[in-house]
Amino acid sequence: MDNFIAKIAIIMLLVFTQSHVVLAQGGKPAAAPKVEAAAKAADDARQGGVSVDDEALDEEADSAAAALMDDSLGLDMAEEPDSTLAPVESVGFHKMLKTKYIEGSAGFMSFVALALVLGLAFCIERVIYLTLSEINAKKLMADLEEQIMQGDIEGAKAVCRDTRGPVASICYQGLMRIDDSMEDIERGITSYGTVQAANLEKGCSWITLFIAMAPSLGFLGTVIGMVMAFEQIQQAGDISPTIVAAGMKVALITTIFGLIAALILQVFYNYILSKIEHITSQMEESAITLLDIIMKYKLTK
């Protein structure tokens, strides 16, 4: 009898636990009514003085428990969550850029892209030219001083000819006038230095032009996109987001691409200016050093 009560308690505990799961899912386990009916029948029989076969009740409790476990396992297996997630398609940067380029209207975006490409072409050309123009000016001046103080002017000229860049060119022009007065030598170095400085800045005006054109073309696309939006409103006779979305999208995308192009060119332009300033300072310092060397040479001659 005690064994039967323990089994009934265990089964009722399983029923209570399973009922919460089933209620959350909107159903009820099939074995729960059998357990409740068996327990109720046993109680009624004992209260009426009727003898109860404990072995039969135990067998019925065992069968109900087995049915309940089957229902529980069936429920767990049926409602096992699918752990396989659908793969998320990743959009590459180039594909997204191409999509936005098309959405911004190829007619407007082509002008912005053309301004960016041409501006980058001038920037790359200037960067290469200025990089090749940079030399170790201190080493060059040390070699020239050694040659000049030994009286080997032709050797000093050969060193300048074999060295690239505006610094060596200025020194060569000064050595060409070494027999003239110091005023003439200084005047010649200054004049030729102005020419070399102009060569360093060649093409920078085009870069500034494209820096100004890129956002201007973007703003032009913005104005045209707004005009398209108002034309669509006029044709539809109603104001709704779906009507003006296309024109507004063209306006915003062209503006964004124009500003991005201008920012990229501005970064390159500032880098070019910094290199020009560095080379110009090298030219001025080398010119002063060369005049001092020539002065010492003339005094010792």
Per the principal axes of the C-alpha atoms, what is the gross shape?
Answer: rod-shaped
Assess the beta-strand content as a share of residues.
under 5%
Decide which structural class fits the backbone. mainly alpha
Helix proportion range: over 70%
Main sheet: strands, sense, barrel: none
- Rg computed from alpha carbons, rounded to a whole number of angstroms: 46 Å
Low-confidence stretches: 18-32, 72-89
Characterization of the model:
- By secondary structure, this protein is mainly α.
- Helix content is about 85%, strand content about 0%.
- It has helices spanning about 1-25, 30-45, 55-80, 95-105, 105-135, 135-150, 155-160, 165-175, 180-200, 205-235, 240-300.
- Helix 5 runs parallel beside helix 11 (about 240-300), helix 6 packs parallel to helix 11 and helix 10 runs antiparallel to helix 11.
- Mean pLDDT is about 75; it is low at about 20-30 and about 70-90.
Summarize the structure.
The protein has helices spanning 2-25, 32-47, 54-78, 93-103, 106-133, 137-149, 153-161, 166-176, 182-200, 204-236, 241-300.
Features:
301 residues, 83% helix, single chain, rod-shaped, mainly alpha
Task: Tell me the layout of helices and strands.
Elements: H1 2-25, H2 32-47, H3 54-78, H4 93-103, H5 106-133, H6 137-149, H7 153-161, H8 166-176, H9 182-200, H10 204-236, H11 241-300
Helix pairs in contact: 1-2, 1-3, 2-3, 5-10, 5-11, 6-7, 6-11, 7-8, 8-9, 8-11, 9-11, 10-11
